[in-house]
Amino acid sequence: MEITAETIRSAREAIRGHVRTTPLYRSPLLSRACGCDVLLKCEYQQITGSFKERGAVYRLLRLTPDERARGVIAASAGNHALGLSYHGQRLGIDVTVVMPEQAPIVKVSRCRAYGAHVELFGDSFDAARAHARERSEAEGLCFVHGFEDTAVIEGQGTVGLELLEQEPAIDVALVPVGGGGLLAGIAVALHALAPEVRLIGVESESAPTLSEALEAGGPVAVRVRPSLADGLGVAQAGARAVELCRGRVSQVEQVSEPEIADAVVRLLEDEKAVVEGAGAVGVAYALRRPQLLAGKRVAIVLSGGNIDMNMVSRIIERGLAAAGRLCRFNVELEDHPGALARLLGVVSGAGANVLQIQHDRSFAPADVAKVSVTLVLETSDHAHVGRLRDAFAAQGFPDAAR
Description:
Layout lengths: L4 H11 L8 E3 L1 H7 L2 E6 L9 H10 L3 H6 L1 E4 L3 H13 L3 E5 L5 H9 L3 E4 L4 H15 L2 E2 L6 H17 L5 E5 L4 H13 L4 E7 L4 H8 L22 H7 L5 E5 L1 H15 L9 H6 L10 E6 L6 H14 L3 E9 L4 H11 L3 E8 L9 E9 L3 H13 L8
Parallel strand pairs: 2-10, 3-4, 3-6, 4-5, 7-8, 7-10, 8-9
Antiparallel strand pairs: 1-2, 11-13, 12-13
Helix pairs in contact: 1-8, 3-5, 3-8, 5-6, 8-9, 9-11, 12-14
């Protein structure tokens, strides 16, 4: 079945009242930081915390009576499973989800709270998906693919319709991409209704799934590394998604782990928005201040907010370090009274704040007259870190940075 702007409009009408029309609002702080007019599409404010429930509920609404009676099964790193679980419970449809063994705890517990049968299997999304397909065939369950199913892609494409309704004059849209279903659906909608909009897919460097697929001319398996953007950790893009993105997506960009962490922290601090790594990759790209975004009106899809609270503190620390607001120095001191005080005087004089200090004699330098001191400092930015480094060198503590 062909996916068009009209079929996406039909999906929009079908899911109206089942999912939220999420806000699109301008961010003055991010606009200043990125050098463009930033508009944030807040899909993390959906009931289950991500855009995934759009496609999930639309697929459930399209089940035949026999499929509804037998129930559905899906493989998911979390958000697709949450959408199916919540709306399956609402609609009285039995839902089974298979997740990788290392799936975020918050997503596993919430699926179970919504009444789904959750099975943890394998060390990757693809292993979980293969197992779910086996169970589907063996038990007669309807398999709902998270980014290849026609109805799912159409449901995700409703994000694009909402974008244009809320702000018709956007120049660029930044959309996270893993398997490609969200980007594909938005691409169909925007290409048909606003072909002048530059559509950019943003993926994690740890899972360059779509970029390699487009380069190869079709889906190819890629090596997926652990990432803060765990929701994008798909080893192979969907064939249907790749087909729909080709010719409709202007480009695909990648962002690094430090950039993702920095974006999550920016959203927490500037927007008071809890956004998971996968949902923040668009902001991570915009913060690079690429020339093609300069002065443009840029809509960024914040696709999800289901972040494990145990991960938040680690992401904050990495994000602060990436932004130059947290740094570490390793300094060798003469082991005599007053040396440490002189070192801390340099820190104070440079306007930094000491968060941690470790004074180590046991594993000190070979010179027994010296000790090793490790400082973790709170700073304002990378320029401040540079001034600290210069101040250390000027006071006889060269090569202090680590």
